[in-house]
Amino acid sequence: MAVLNLTLSEDAVVALRDALICLNKFSDDVSLEAQKDKLILTALNSSKSAYACFSFSATRFCSRYHFEGSSQNHEKFYCTLYIRALISIFRSRVGGDPQRDREKETLIDRCEVAIEDGPGVQSRFIAKLVFRNGIASTHRLPFEVVVPVHAKFNREEAVNHWTIPSRTLRQLMDHFGPGVELLDVNSDGEHVKFTCFTEKTVNGDEVLKKPLRTSIAIEVDEFEDLKIEDSLHIVINVRDFRAIIQHAGISGTNVMARYSGPARPLQLTYPGDAVSCEFLLMTVGERTANPPHKTKRGKSVNSTKGPRQQQLEAASRRQSAAPSEQLQGAPQPQASGHAQSRLGGAQPPPPQHPMLSAGSNVGRMSAFDLRPSQRPAPPPTMRSEGLFVDDYQWEPVHEDDEETEENARLEWDQSVQTAEPTSRMDRTMSDADETNEANADATQASSVGLEPTQRLSEVERMGLFFRE
Amino acid sequence: MAQPLFRAVATSTRPLYQLLRCVNFTNKIHVLITEEGIRFSADLSRVMQGTASLDKKLFASYHLNLGESDDESSQPDLPSFQINLPALLETLQIFGAVDVATRAQKAEQDPYRSNLRNYRPDAFSNQALGIGGTCCLQLAEEGAPLSIIIEESGVKTVANLTTYVPEIPEDIPFDRDELAYKIIMQSRYLLDGLAELSPNGPKRLTITTSRGPPYLTLAGNGDLGTTVVDFAKGRELLETLSVQERWVQTYKFDLIKSSTEAMRIASKISLRGDRQGVLSLQFMVEVEGGGVSFLDFRFVPFISHEDDEDGQEGGEGEGEEGGEGDEPDRGDEEL
C-alpha cells in the first residue's frame, strides 16, 4: 500500500530539483515529511548550526496528491533520503548534445512519486519519470524512517528584521571573494554593511597574511523594509547564506531576515511558487561597536564544532534577556525575580556606544558572554533549550507552558525594559534628514530613562507620510 | 616498388576519427583491409567486441593492389595487422591543426575581425568543411608500417605507425538464425535509457524483452537504488520489434556503456539477441557525403544461475535453457 502518491508536472520537478540542490548544500540527507495538505523537505547540517525547510503546498505544487498515511500514523509520514540520489533522478535532461533536438524529446512529461511502506512491503521511494518521447524510467530508492528534526524560531523575540530583493543580495554576493567564510551584517544608521571575512590564517601576527576583508554598504533605500538595531553585529556563515541566496534568486522574490541578537538564530524566509522557504542560521557576533578583535572572539566560537552548540545555547540563554520587546510594550509578567537575581549579579561595564546606552544588559553581554569557552557548560539536567528540538517540540513555544526555571532563564529582563533603546534604526526615521537629530533625541531620552510615549507602529505610519 | 599494397586518400579525417573513436576501448585494434573498405575490430577479453567498418566511399580514392596472388588462389590474403588505436586517433587529429594555426594568424592581421566569439569553432573552417587538405593512408607492403600522410596548406606530415602481427581474434559467436528478438530504434533512445541508469552506478545491466508491453526494459541495481527504464509506449519508440519469447540477460554495465559514443553519433540501432544470450548492437552511422557506415558491437552475458530471480520465471521456453548450457565456457573467459 502506497503511503503517498503524488504527480508532479515538469515545472514542479524543476522546483523540486532547485530545492534539493539547495538542501544538499546543508546536508547529505533530506527529511521528507508528508501530511494531508503539504509536503515538507528539511535538512539540518551536521554541526546543527543551519537548518533549511521547504514547505510545498500539496494541492498547488502537485498536479495530484494523495496522502494515505501509514497504519501507525495517519497524520503524517516521514522518511530520510539521500539527496544526491534524488537530484540525479530529478536532474535536468535537457542539454548535452546540441546537434540533437533534445528539447522536445527528453523533456519530462510528468513524474509520479509513490512511497511504499508498511509491514510486508519493501520500504521504497518510487519515482517514475515519463518522458515526452515515451520512455519511462522508474527509480526505487530505499529510505530510512527517522523522525525529522525541526528547528524552532521565536518570531516574537526577533525584533530586528529587513526585507530586500533577492536580486540585490545576489549582486552583493558577487563581490565577495572565494575564500571568505563569515558574513557580518551590521548597520550604522544610514547604511547596512555586509562584511565578508575569514579567520583562517589568524595564527601568526603578520598583517599581510590576513585575507581580504570586503565590506559593502547598502543604502537603506535598497531595502523594502528595515528595522534593525544599530551596531548590532550579526555574523553568519557565508556558505549557508550563499546557498540560500542562490535559491532565492531563482524565484526572484524578496528575502526577509529576522533576528534578535548574536548567538540567537537568524531566520531567512521567502515565498516561492507554491512553496515557502525558511532557513535558520545560527549567528555569532556582538552587539556593541567593539574593537575588531572582539568580533574575532565571537567567531572563534563558530569554528569549534562539537561543544559549540552547547556554548551557543548557553550564551543564548543569557542573551534572551536582551531588550527586544518594546513594541509589545507591557513587560512580561513571568519575568521572575529568579532571572533578575541571576543576571543582576553581573554588572555591565559602561556602554561604549552612546546610542546604545539604554541596553545596559547588552554591554554586559558583550563583556561576559563573548568568552563562552570559559563559562561552565550548562548542567546536564537542564532540559535542552537549544535551537533544535525534535518533532514534538515543533509547536511555537508558549512561555506559560514551560517550567518556571525555564521561564526564569528565558524571560526579558524587566529592569532593561524601562530603558529600552529607541536607537534601533528605522528606515522611516533615518530616511529623513533629521536622522541624527532623532537618534540623538532618542539617545538622550533613553539615557534619562524616559518611557517611550508612542508606539513605534504609530510613528511608522507618520514616517511614511513624511517621506512623501 | 612503384605501387604500394594499399593506398587510400581522404579529404577529411573527421568521419574516420568519429567512427574509430567509437571502438576506442582497447589499446590495440585489428585491421583488415578488403576491397570494400577497412574493418577495424577491437576485442576486450573476448567478452566485448566492437567493429567499425569504414566504407570505401569515405575515401576519395581507394586502391588495394593484391598483385599476382590473384592468379594463384581465388581467395587472396587480405592485408591484416594490428595497430595502436590511440596513436592512430592522435594522428588523425593532426589534420586540420595547420588550418587552425593559419586562421589564428590571419585573425590577428585582420582589422575587421571582431574579437567577440573568437573561441567558437568556425562553421567555415577547413576542418569543419573537410576541404583544403588530404589525408593518405598507405601501406607499402605486408608488415610495413602504416603511413599516414597529411598534407594541407603546404605542410606535409608523415606518421608511420608500427603494425603488429595479427592475432586473429575469434568473433563472438552470434547465431543469426536463432534470434530471440530484433529491435530497431533510434539509437539516442537507447542512449537516453542508459543515461537514466548510469547515475546510479549499476554494475550489471539487465535487458528484458517481451512480446507485450513493456517490450523492452533496461534495469540496473546500484548503490543508491534500483532503476528500471521501459519503453512502454513501444509502438512509437521502436521501429521494428520482433520478439520470439521473453528474454532476460545480464551484462556488465560498463561494457555496454563503452558503446555510448556510438549511440551518440549513430542514427539507428539494431538490437538483437540470440538464444545463447549474446547481445548484438548494430549502429548505422550516416556520414555526410560518405553514405552509411556501420558499427557492430557484441557482448557476452553473465551466466544466469538457476536460482537467480530471472531463472524462476516459469515457461521461459527451451531456447533459453539450451543457451545456458552453452554459456559457461564464455563466462569463464569473462572471469
Automatic annotation (TrEMBL), chain A:
Residues 300-339 have a biased composition (Polar residues). Residues 288-360, 398-455 are annotated as: Disordered. It holds the Pfam family Rad9. InterPro entries: DNA_clamp_sf (IPR046938), Rad9 (IPR026584), Rad9/Ddc1 (IPR007268). Belongs to the rad9 family. The keyword DNA damage applies. One of its GO terms (cellular component) is checkpoint clamp complex. SUPFAM superfamilies: DNA clamp. One of its GO terms (biological process) is DNA replication checkpoint signaling. Keywords: DNA damage. Acts in DNA repair and mutagenesis. Involved in promoting resistance to ionizing radiation and UV light, as well as regulating cell cycle progression after irradiation. This is DNA repair protein rad9. The keyword Cytoplasm does not apply. Transmembrane segments: none annotated.
From TrEMBL, chain B:
The keyword Protease does not apply. Signal peptide: none annotated. Keywords: DNA damage, DNA repair, Exonuclease, Hydrolase, Nuclease, Nucleus. Residues 306-335 have a biased composition (Acidic residues). GO terms for cellular component: checkpoint clamp complex. One of its GO terms (biological process) is DNA damage checkpoint signaling. It comes from the Eukaryota. This is DNA repair exonuclease rad1.
